[in-house]
Hints:
It is built from 10 helices and 19 strands. It has helices at 9-37, 94-105, 121-132, 148-157, 161-172, 175-188, 210-220, 224-230, 298-314, 401-405; strands at 46-49, 70-74, 79-83, 88-89, 116-118, 145-147, 207-208, 234-237, 241-244, 255-263, 267-277, 282-292, 317-321, 326-332, 335-340, 345-349, 357-362, 374-381, 385-392. The strands form 6 sheets. Strands 1-14-15-19-18-17 form a 6-stranded antiparallel β-sheet, with no helix packed on it. It has a 5-stranded antiparallel β-sheet with strand order 3-2-12-11-10. The chain has a two-stranded antiparallel ribbon with strand order 4-7. Residues 1-8 and 31-41 have low confidence and may be disordered.
Amino acid sequence: MLRPFSARRPALRGLFPRLVGMVLGVIIATALIVGSQLPLLHEPAMVHVNPSALSLPLAPALAWPSAGPAALYVPSLGVLLTHDDHVVPIASLTKMMTAYVALLDAPLGLNQVGPCYAVTSADVATYQEMKILNESSVVVVAGEQLCELDLLNGLLVHSAGNYAVMLATMIAGSPSAFVERMNAEGAVLGFAHTHYDDVTGFSSASVSTARDQAVLATILMKSALVRSIVLQQSVTLPVAGTVGSFTPYVGFDNVIGVKSGRTAAAGGCDVMAVTFYDGSTTSVLYAVVLDQRGGDLLGPAGVAALALANSAVASRVHYTFVKGSVVGTYSWGGQRVTYGFTQQHDVSWWPAEGTLRVKVKMLRFTSSIRRGEIVGHLIVYGEQHHVFILRALGNLSPPSLLERLR
Length: 406
């Protein structure tokens, strides 16, 4: 007679292999899970940016006048900065708009003289009145023929107020009608704070801002004819003969114009165009000063404008990010690698832009970093928008599985 439990022996004999299979399955499944999750078993590499590597020099301050509105305009760089820019009388700077409107209505190119005007006895009387009032003017005689080129020369070089009146009369029929045109063109140009009351600027009601005058000078100087006129240190007129320019420093210190003015109400005013070399080409900047006081008014205005222009040129900052320089580090645990520049980069900027703005954008790493690999970008906001590549300057690997499980 067989024992009762002998019938279960085959089942017991198969239990051990099944248990072993189950254990192996668990081990394999665990290995697969752990293997798939290895990148998540450690934090991404820590990134550090060294502030001192991005501490770029500050641009020197501009030499703004101690009093009175001022503006600096560098059209080629899009730099337009104003200082204490309130509305004030602008004296003979008004004649820039007189010339601008005249050339709009009666365009004149190089080597052209334009329409001519016969001086009347009323024009002679206007000259005599201006002379009594000490308003800038030049002698004229009845019957004298003055062409548009003559009038523009006398107007822009010697600031002849009576030439402005004759030019306005020749173009629009009367100075009052011409003033309407001046204000209409000012509105077209967006000069919300500029108003003209006369064609000469002798009226204290002809007012503007340094910014508007800088922009107008830039527009006016687009004319090759105007540039050729305002560069002259003197001009020879049909009856008045040779008269000098009232624009301070024209022909010296890279000054190529544009216009100055003075009255008791306006003080000394100057719009000065100065050439400079920006490293690749010759450009022009415009320094504007209004309401300058002291001496003959024009002298202080010229000194202030030239100081502002020269400070702008001198304050331009150049900086080089040297090849091989370190910007920061990536690290895992106690291991780290530096990153930075693998080639030289140059930037430049003007004080008008303030402190050079720099921004760093870094990539996130959860696996090895290789030497020369792109790890981020340095963005520089200067005269131009620059994006410089940052690369790893060495190799770095995440901690091993053993190190991560400790």
